[in-house]
Amino acid sequence: MDENLLLTLLHNNARMDVTDLAMALNETEDNVVDTISQLEKDKVICGYHTIINWDRTNVDNVMALIQLMQLLNVSMVMIVLLKRSMHSQK
Fold first, then answer.
1. pLDDT, tens digit only, all 90 positions of the chain
2. Sequence-ordered list of residues with C-beta below 8 angstroms from that of 33, at least 6 positions apart, any chain
3. Buried b vs exposed e over 8-39: b needs ≥16 C-beta within 10 Å?
4. What distance in Å separates the CA atoms of residue 24 and residue 34, rounded to the nearest whole number?
5. CB atoms within 10 A of CB 6
6. Cβ atoms within 10 Å of 40's Cβ, excluding its own
7. Long-range contacts from 67-76, C-beta under 8 angstroms, 24+ separation
8. How many other CB atoms sit within 10 Å of the CB of residue 68?
9. Which of 11, 24, 55, 87 is in the most buried spot, having the most CB atoms within 10 Å?
């Protein structure tokens, strides 16, 4: 079985039906299920992710991310200023 193709198909659509996977891979459904199980056991497949259109929800995730980035940038500026201050005192 072409495991790379199987992984690519699952990466593009983790909910793809085993029947459709078997047809795309020219394999039996049992072989596809066994291969997926082995890839999960071997930690090649580590999970299945959902892509969410946050614009269609009431959740404002971007604001929290921007605030976090601003905090990190301020911290980095403070570290640079402290290092410069320490070097100028020597």
1. 999 999 999 999 999 999 999 999 999 999 999 999 999 999 999 998 888 887 888 876 555 555 556 666 666 666 666 666 665 555
2. 18
3. ebbeeeeeeeeeebbeebebeeeebeebbeeb
4. 16
5. 20
6. 13
7. none
8. 10
9. 24
